[in-house]
Amino acid sequence: MANIIITTHWSDGDVLPFLHIGKYLKKKGHDITIFTHCCYEKRIKEEGINFVPWDNWNECENLFNDLVSCSDIVASNEEIQVFRDKYESASVRIKEYQLLKPYCERKDTILLAKSRSSIAALLIAEKLKIPLIWVYMNPYEYESSKSFNSINREKLCEEANKLRKKMGLKSIESLFSWQCCPKGKIGLWPNWYKSDMVNEPEDINLVGFPLEPLNRRKNLSISITLKDILLENPAPIIISGGSSKKIKKEFYKIAIKSCSNLGRNVIVATKYKELLPDIIPSNVYVFDYIPLHESLAYASLIIHHGGIGTVSNAINAGVPQLVLADCLDRPLNGSIVKKIGLGDYLLPIMWNEENLIKSINNLLSSDYKKKCTRFVEEHKEENTFQNISKIIESVKEDEEYIISYETIKVCSRKINHYVNDKKEKNNNLNSLPKDMKKYLLEKIKKEKILNKVERG
């Protein structure tokens, strides 16, 4: 058994998968401690897992508000830098390092950390010679990290080396090579969940979606009021914009309007009432929160923002999905859902009542439901948690999972070789669909105009 330290940041899609992993590993006999934001304390402690917060409630609330300003598909460099200075600075990472260190002194410690944001885990792993498993949450995460580093290489490298110097570590050639150096890399999605639009690390181990089994008989967290609506015939539609406010303001308005005359109930899940239209149709029921994993077992369709957590839960429940995505990994998830035939994906420029109603009626057909159900049966034996457990066992006695300055240098050489000698997949603007290109170009044009206005 091992002392497993889990570190992650941001919202539900970045935290709940680690909670599910932690629950499974705890049952296997490991000691588990999760480091994340204070708002997740109750949910984590309810599972009997040790919890340490990165922040207090005021800091956590400010973080989630500030995330909204960086959620646009084309956020300005100034907005991104302001956010990074506040939440990703050397002082923040050193604070996280100091929080982690006392929990990592056992000889049997293994780190399980979210990629990109868990710089403190990289520091701890290298300083204390602790094995690290680097976790990618979605297929877009590696590519976006690589792109961000290529655009800001010099600045990011300078920041990383200032931090490393403070920690008594040698200088590196790039932040990206440091982030890619862990031998243990896992991706929390299955092999069939792919897109030609992004590259994935060749050494990443795809373990599957970290979802708990769906059991319609054990719906203990569904309230009586919610269950009465879920059990009505025809089955209701669920609308969810995720756990944060990182969503276009038109999302709920157009989704609710398009469902107002379909002859079935609609369940809207959001605690951000300011995002809802002023008038709510009589067939629409609004909840601050619903247990999505359980509720989907009764739904006919889900309309959502494109987060991979929602996507994977809908696939697992055999429920068709309409993805209205506009930022982060969400457009990629929407395109994958549409490609594998389990739903539809509409870009913001296509968000109008006519398009949504047409898509909804198609997705509500019995043939589409059968297709989704059949897909679940064909892919139900992914054994995600068993796969992760086997990796944990292999890491315990293998010194190759220890990060050193030499492993970072080796990774840097591999990355340079890959860039110089291997033809990468074409994932530039020309490879995108016409509607995506039009949307991106409109956003870029708007951003340039705003920048000119701000400069006077």
Task: Please describe the structure with a list of short key phrases separated by commas or semicolons.
456 residues, alpha/beta, Rossmann fold, 2 domains, seven-stranded parallel sheet, six-stranded parallel sheet, 19 helices, 13 strands, 47% helix, globular, disordered C terminus, transferase, UDP_glucos_trans, GlycoTrans_28_N, glycosyltransferase activity, glycosyltransferase
Question: What share of residues are in beta strands?
Answer: 5-15%
Total of helices = 19
CATH architecture of the largest domain: 3-Layer(aba) Sandwich
Which structural class is indicated by helix and strand composition?
A: alpha/beta
Q: Please identify the top-level CATH class of the largest domain.
A: Alpha Beta
Helical content, roughly?
A: 40-55%
Termini separation (Å)? 62 Å
The dominant shape is globular
- Radius of gyration computed on alpha carbons: 22 Å
Using DSSP, what is the number of strands? 13
Can you list the strand order of the major beta sheet? 3-2-1-4-5-6-7
**What's the mean pLDDT score?**
87
Number of domains: 2
Oligomer: single chain
Unreliable sequence segments: 420-429, 447-456
- Give the CATH H-level superfamily of the largest domain: Glycogen Phosphorylase B
Main beta-sheet strand count, sense and barrel state: 7 strands, parallel
Quote the CATH topology of the largest domain.
Rossmann fold
Describe the overall structure:
With 456 residues, the chain is α/β, with parallel strands linked by helices. It contains 19 helices and 13 strands. A seven-stranded parallel sheet has the order 3-2-1-4-5-6-7, with helices on both faces. It is an enzyme of class 2 (transferase). It comes from Clostridium brassicae. Keywords: Glycosyltransferase, Transferase.
